[in-house]
Automatic annotation (TrEMBL):
Superkingdom of origin: Eukaryota
Domain Aldehyde dehydrogenase: 79-548
Organism: Chironomus riparius
Protein name, per record: Multifunctional fusion protein
One GO process term, biological-process aspect: L-proline catabolic process to L-glutamate
EC number: 1.2.1.88
InterPro entries: Ald_DH/histidinol_DH, Ald_DH_C, Ald_DH_CS_CYS, Ald_DH_N, Aldehyde_DH_dom, P5CDH/ALDH4A1, Proline_metab_enzyme
Amino acid sequence: MMLNLRKFLVIKNLSVRGIQSVVPDSNLKDFTVVNEPILSYKKGSKERKELEAALNEAKSNIVDVPIMIAGEEIRTNEARFQVMPHDHQHQIARFYYADEKLLQKAIGKCTEAQQKWDKTPLKERVEIWDRAADLMAGKYRQRLNAATMLGQSKTTIQAEIDSAAELIDFVRFNVFFLKENAKFQPISEDIKVTKNSVRFRGIDGFVAAVSPFNFTAIGGNLSYTPALMGNSVLWKPSDTAILSNWAIYEIMREAGVPEGVVNFVPADGPVFGDTITKSPYLAGINFTGSVPTFNRLWKQVGENINNYKNYPKLIGECGGKNYHFVHPSADIESVVTGTIRSSFEYCGQKCSACSRAYIPESLWPKIKEGLLCERSKLKVGDVSEFSTFMGAVIDEKAFKRISSYIEHAKASPNLEIIGGGGYDCSKGYFIEPTIVQTKDPLDKIMVEEIFGPLLTIYVYADKDLDATMKLVGSSTQFALTGAVFSTNESFLKRALEEFKMTAGNFYINDKSTGSVVGQQPFGGSRMSGTNDKAGGPQYVTRWSTVQSIKETFVPLRDIDYPYMRE
Ligand SMILES: NC(=O)c1ccc[n+]([C@@H]2O[C@H](COP(=O)([O-])OP(=O)(O)OC[C@H]3O[C@@H](n4cnc5c(N)ncnc54)[C@H](O)[C@@H]3O)[C@@H](O)[C@H]2O)c1
Ligand SMILES: N[C@@H](CCC=O)C(=O)O
């Protein structure tokens, strides 16, 4: 019996001998990337003139933004409008909600498109992304910035670092990281006998990208990075970032992303969440937003777990209660400048914004003086004016939430408003940059995410340094960003250990905001998110389902093992 079988194998394997590897190399040429430069917008500069023209154009139009499903433009009977937060009677975009039926249609088309898209060689995808980055950096830079400034109430510099630099960086660096990751191939001990390889595959099904209002770049990253890796996507933008997100969609289409690969589907949040989590084809959720929304989605996935074709991948980057911890040895000017910028740039609506600070009694008089002096110089108003430091908060809901904390501060005996505290929504949703001092380090104002221009300070007795350090990690459920200020090396070493689990992004003698793609990969731990580090090298691989392939070129001969014949 054994002999006969061997004979059979020998004959069969004659044809195996001549076969070469059938697994193609990725063929990605090597290259390096650098971060997109931030333009100056000085008076008379080319970029300033171009931005002014783009702002005028965007202000004088209401852009009609359809739902896009596999290239089909869809409009429903009920139109909605995006307004300028700093002038809420001024509409800049008209858009429509996809209802459950349209979302089901999008899921079908998207899942179908994935099959073809995943076969597109990496090289071709990389070329599309390269073209897109060039379009964003050149021809469409000011369209993106103007849409972000007017729609999300960002000042020139805040738009430039978001909808220009960070967005372009996401597009370029994710391609770079894909290429770097593709370089890794597993060990093949003798290539003439066996070749081992891995290849990236998209996930069969669809990925739901759900993006927040506060960063245009995040919308682009959440939707197009899964697409780069061979997935197809249903992108639900935020209602308050429609215009800038639509610009990204149009640019990616012009660069060559085929119809159906990313489908632009504004929708009511819960309707979207309920529909995608019910679908057996849900391959993943790429979410950035608040904790309650992500928790709801996660629970719904759990409830539907028996229905899916794949275990859906869940990425959720959520909120924060970010801190500045100041040691008695700190450089006062750095503390003041960093805290003002972190707490109040973009109205404190960066997930990384400082909203609680711990300051030693010995430095408090000088730091207080500095903070109040700098705060009083901040101009709040129309973001089209180049002297404006901050615009309005995003919408009425945010305005009410933030002003309720100001009212809480006014009413509480433990809290004192030492700067700002005013708010007015008659024209735009304006809230003054506000500084509160608290006697209670565990008051809700020091614990909950507020997401607005409100900084609370707890002044600690220098002798209570150790106990105060403990408060940083124990006060809140979040661990997104944090900063420590000190000129004492041994204290900094200690802080590095003690604060290890309190922040996914940790800063030493720098403000808690301003992460840069490729430089400070971004994400928080604990309830601040799954910490998949957008802008870092691993992020792209999260959106791939990798296949390992073993090819054997030498015939298999033996069923038994040598020791069995001894
Ligand atoms: N960690 C990070 O990287 C990061 C970055 C930016 C923003 N954020 C966080 O985002 C929040 C602010 O953004 P936001 O106000 O847009 O957050 P949000 O949670 O209100 O909304 C985020 C997105 O979810 C959608 N949504 C709402 N309910 C939904 C549901 N039931 N199912 C599916 N989608 C639903 C919204 O329409 C929006 O598109 C803050 O908490 C901030 O800290 C975190
Ligand atoms: N990249 C941003 C955070 C994004 C969240 O809003 C920063 O670090 O300032």
